[in-house]
Amino acid sequence: xxxxxxxxxxxxxxxxxxxxxxxxxxxxxxxxxxxxxxxxxxxxxxxxxxxxxxxxxxxxxxxxxxxxxxxxxxxxxxxxxxxxxxxx
Length: 88
Hints:
- There is one protein chain.
- Helix content is about 35%, strand content about 15%.
- It is of the alpha+beta class.
- The protein is built from three helices and two strands.
- It is elongated and about 45 Å long.
């Protein structure tokens, strides 16, 4: 997420754009959602498009809770903790 934030800041500075659109595929959608929802990215991102991102996890097991594919992982629990996935 920190690398994405730095990239967005550099891109905005270089282009003069107030906001940018971000597109992520598969697990690449995770840092986009995290940046927009939890790291102040919403004010810098006009559109966040995630393609095939396992946003709710691939499985929900009591085993392997650290996996980014497990809906019970701390990361996905935090990412999905809001009332909605929509960030304005």
